[in-house]
Amino acid sequence: MTDAPHPTRAQRFRDIVVPAAERAGYTGHGAKARFCRDTGMTDSTVTRLWQGKAVPESRFFSRIAEVTGLYLGTLLVEGGLLSQEALQSLSESDRSQVGSALTPQEAADRLGITDDVGREVFFRTIDRLKRLEDDDPEHGTDHGGTAAQM
């Protein structure tokens, strides 16, 4: 008995995104075209994503999470782009330092994120989280985020 080969990063990403997209209504004729439109990705990028051949550019991750209904952290961890430990470490131990003198680059270094793709994902996740914080209705600056989450 041989072990099955491990899925590639692109296959893991597909395995989380495609079922979530289908649950979100991206099924049937024109599903990929609607997904392209709603995420801003090209047809060839979505085709490669659907086939498990490529991971899209990190600039699309937050939009993919939004249209599929996935939590961005779930997308990044289950999609194989960020370890659960790195995500937890940021949210638990470094949370108090995010607004201080600690830069995202320093945080990535402390978390041991050395891969260029991983670092880019990490930086974009921080940017997305900052935008979500800015849209937090408890801070009086809701720009439609609450309606979008319902």
Number of helices: 9
Average pLDDT score: 79
- Residues in β-strands, percent: under 5%
The main sheet comes to: none
State the end-to-end distance.
48 Å
Helix content: 55-70%
List low-confidence stretches. Answer: 139-150
Question: Structural class, judged by helices and strands?
Answer: mainly alpha
| Rg (C-alpha, Å) | 17 Å
Order of helices and strands: HHHHHHHHH
What's the count of strands? 0
Shape: globular
Notable characteristics:
single chain, 150 residues, mainly alpha, 9 helices, globular, disordered C terminus
Characterise the protein shown here.
The longest helix has 19 residues, at 116-134. The protein is 59% helix and 0% strand. The protein is built from 9 helices and no strands. Mean pLDDT is 79; it is low at 139-150. The protein is globular and about 50 Å long. By secondary structure, it is an all-alpha fold.
Sum this structure up briefly.
By secondary structure, this protein is mainly α.
Fold blueprint:
Layout: H1 9-23, H2 31-39, H3 43-51, H4 61-68, H5 72-78, H6 84-92, H7 104-111, H8 116-134, H9 145-149
Helix pairs in contact: 1-4
